[in-house]
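Please review the protein record below. Tell me whether the encoded fold seems credible here:
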Amino acid sequence: MLNSAIVLAAGEGHHVVNELPIPAPWYGIIVFVSLMFMLLCIMGMRSVGIRPSEPGDEVVPHGHEAQGHGTPQAQGHGR
């Protein structure tokens, strides 16, 4: 009895439950184009971190003041 119900259910065939709003290949195309755009953005900004700084934008290590700026401080931490 249970077997006949399973056989009948399997014999009904395949039916679509939810149709996609656009054809399936377009999902791959859209994802590919968006990932290529993001890669282009990243590659365009990769040299920003290694550009030489402009004069006057001197990088000063922690605990040291640039000469002529601010008040003189003792060297070291907490002294």
